[in-house]
Design brief:
single chain, about 250 residues, alpha/beta, Rossmann fold, seven-stranded mixed beta sheet, four-stranded mixed beta sheet, 7 helices, globular
Length: about 250
Amino acid sequence: MSKPHLLLLSSSKVHGYEFLEYAASDIKNFLNKSGVSTVLFVPYAAVDHDAYLKKVTPVFNKWGYQVEGIHNNNPIEAVKKAEAIFVGGGNTFLLLKTLYDKQVVNLIRERVLKGGIPYIGSSAGTNVAAPTIHNTNDMPIVYPQSFSALNLIPFNINPHYLDPDSTSKHKGETREERILQYHELPPEYPVHHVLGLREGCTLHVDGDVAILKGIANARLFLRGKPPQEIPLESNLSHLLTKNICVEQELQILQ
């Protein structure tokens, strides 16, 4: 099995930056290291695939990469031939359902984990890199056949993580409370650790090494322990060991 190469972004859009601009250097370094010239873009988290492709293409062209939309080809053949894959943000449930419908869940996992091709995810694309999508913030506007995702890493991610606002009059649950409630599930549930990526966070995985990059700190939730603040450039490689809280293999349904 090849070493996985992942770049997992909390978001494509961050205040004060153009689309993907805050992560431009990390993305270019990441792709250049693997000699990539063409990126396969997966716009399945949005409804209008062509419009999403038109938004992404000029950005990557400016950096010197060609972009192909998976929806303009046979999806299975496109993944088989891909030099690198970029899965964009949007609605996580729609994204995962479409990945299953197009029968590419197992294939993407195989190409990334066995073939070693680079994988970039943003928001929903980062959610589906995890074992499950249980910690997405999105509304379930469609129903995928399973909440099990690509399982490229052994922990879940909560993109767009928001800290509690002590000045707010809103009395609903905070993001932290929601994640802690997830960790309170009984042992029969496959509960994972959760990495909360604030806007501007990027997780870089190179084989068995994981480093927090970007422009913001992250928040780590280990079941049974208090949440931890994770500074930029922290080494999170320990999270890459299997840490499912119930020793239970996820069934990737295809």
